[in-house]
Design a protein that fits this description.
Layout (H helix, E strand, L loop, with lengths): L6 E5 L4 H6 L1 H10 L4 E6 L1 H8 L6 E4 L5 H15 L3 E4 L4 H9 L4 E4 L16 E2 L13 H12 L16 H15 L7 E4 L11 H11 L5 E4 L5 H10 L6 E4 L5 H13 L3 E5 L2 H9 L2 E5 L5 H4 L13 E2 L3 E4 L22 H4 L3 H39 L1
Parallel strand pairs: 1-2, 1-4, 2-3, 4-5, 5-6, 7-8, 7-10, 8-9, 10-11, 11-13
Antiparallel strand pairs: 12-13
Helix pairs in contact: 2-6, 3-10, 7-10, 8-9, 8-14, 10-11
């Protein structure tokens, strides 16, 4: 007879970057409760990233555009799962309603101060303590997640610096296959440029990406990547870069699990990722890539790669993991949280960001990657020499 298995529901519906931020919560729960059944409530467009996670037993879909029928399906699935513990890793009215609908008697989540809609925090029976604040008073999303992880799994140590989660071996192999298809057996570092939808206030113009690709291709291989939302930009870049030998354009990358697997494979080859504040940027950082973030209106201290880069130099902010590049002259209104730019000269946060400035940061990241690669090679050679010496002594 099998013993009782605790049933835990994670509620983090969207967006892609926020789902990535919540992955350490899944890892910590699995480590603390190895026999539990763990489900995750998420919107369908982000479910592909979770279905392949070895630590997760079930994905519960919520179609936010599905109206009353979507709520009915969700309620049916939640009742079938029978959660005993719901953990709200989102912190708004919608996630609170789902936690309540799960019927779980224990409902954990962020401290009220860390909710986007604070009144909905009354849905909790077990709130976490407030997240720690930096000296400048700004709290990164990963700090909020760290406070929640520490609260629900106080005896489990899970690294928060790279919130990755294991995928199946088949998916990992698919990432290596795509990497080999696009770059062959060549060692890195190489550069992945992820285009942005030019209708997004956080977007860098496609022409600037094209100029950057041409510049970098003089010394390394470059992959220009576009997902479904950037297909038009991807096709435009492909036309402009058709004559550049060391540039490859992929304009139809759509599956999140496949993208995640490719980025993990790219990280193992010391690749550098360049992109705006987006879900793919968070995936690249979580996979272990060095990231050059093109930061415009958003505040990288809240949502950029973590740990936060605070030391400024000629390229922007940087640390051993990533660089943050901003326009050399920032408007007084930046950073902001607006989804639409109202500046009299347009989106100057991004249009004033020069490709040469970005290229400088990319080259610094490449240099770090090459240093790491040489250090790994020296370590491997030292270990090999030590093994040979032991064998000779025997």
């Amino acid at each position: 007879m099998h013993g009782h298995r605790l049933r835990i529901l994670i509620v983090r519906l969207s967006h892609l970057g926020d789902v990535v931020h919540a992955l350490p919560l899944l890892s910590a729960l699995r480590a603390a409760h190895p026999t539990a059944r763990i489900a995750w409530a998420v919107q369908p467009e982000f479910a592909d990233l979770l279905r392949d996670k070895a630590e997760l037993d079930q994905v519960v879909l919520f179609d936010r555009r599905g109206g009353a029928a979507a709520w009915a399906r969700l309620r049916f699935d939640l009742e079938a799962f029978g959660a005993e513990w719901a953990i709200d890793a989102q912190g708004n009215v919608k996630s609170a309603l789902i936690s309540l609908a799960s019927g779980a008697p224990r409902r954990s989540g962020f401290a009220r101060a860390d909710w986007t809609e604070r009144f909905a925090a009354s849905s909790l029976t077990d709130p976490a303590p407030p997240a720690s604040r930096a000296e400048d008073g700004v709290t990164h999303a990963m700090e909020r997640m760290a406070a929640l992880v520490g609260h629900v799994t106080p005896s489990t140590l899970v690294p928060m610096s790279r919130p990755t989660s294991p995928s199946s071996s088949a998916t990992s192999q698919s990432g290596e296959h795509e990497l080999a298809e696009w770059f062959g057996a060549a060692r890195g570092p190489f550069v992945v440029l992820h285009l942005s939808d030019e209708h997004d206030v956080r977007a860098w113009r496609t022409g600037a990406f094209v100029e950057l690709a041409r510049d970098l291709a003089r010394e390394c291989d470059v992959l220009v990547l576009a997902g479904p939302g950037e297909r038009a930009e991807g096709l435009a870049a492909q036309r402009e870069l058709a004559d550049v030998a060391r540039v490859r354009c992929v304009t139809d990358q759509s599956a999140l699990a496949a993208l995640d697997a490719f980025l993990h494979a790219a990280a193992r080859r010391q690749a550098v990722f360049v992109g705006c504040d987006s879900g793919p940027m968070h995936l690249a950082w979580a996979a272990g890539m060095r990231v050059v973030l093109l930061a415009g209106p958003q505040d990288e201290r809240r949502t950029g790669p973590w740990p936060v880069a605070r030391a400024l130099d000629a390229r922007g902010a940087g640390n051993e993991h990533h660089f943050v590049v901003r326009a050399e002259v920032q408007p007084a209104c930046a950073p902001c949280l607006s989804r639409k730019c109202t500046h009299s000269e347009g989106n100057v946060c991004m249009t004033r960001m020069a490709p040469a400035r970005v290229a400088s940061a990319v080259r610094a990241a490449i240099g770090m990657a090459r240093d790491d690669d040489r250090e790994s090679t020296r370590s491997a050679e030292a270990m090999s020499s030590e093994r040979v010496g032991r064998a000779q002594r025997v």
